[in-house]
Amino acid sequence: MTDAANLGSGLNDVLGLRYPETTPDRVVMEFTIGPQHLQPFGIPHGGVYCAVHEAAASIGAFTWLNKDVPEGGPIQPAVGSNNSTDFLRQAKVGDTITTTATPIHRGRTQQLWRVESVDQNGKLIAQGQVRLANLPAAPDR
Question: pLDDT tens digit string along 27-42?
């Protein structure tokens, strides 16, 4: 199976995401708040947490969908269809954020994942849910 964390560069690289754990049942990502994560008022932009939450849930959903696909076989993508993220407290530059995604529901056509982001002290920074659509397998990949 294709490793979800290595599907290519893009926003995940720009955000500086690291992947300490990627399994079909749990995804853990880490990143350190830097100037690139701030909005004009000097605090982390809420869109960063939305993007990280969707990335974590998408990687988990993809990993679950493709856990039995042989190397080089057709993979089945999962894409976000709804992202609800609540921002609970501010982090600051230099804080390390750990985001954990776990499945609530996994079905034939859709999945729902719970996602939480905590700072290095374990304080909840943001939490939410991401719904994903399971797309048909891509035979030409």
Answer: 999 999 999 999 999 9
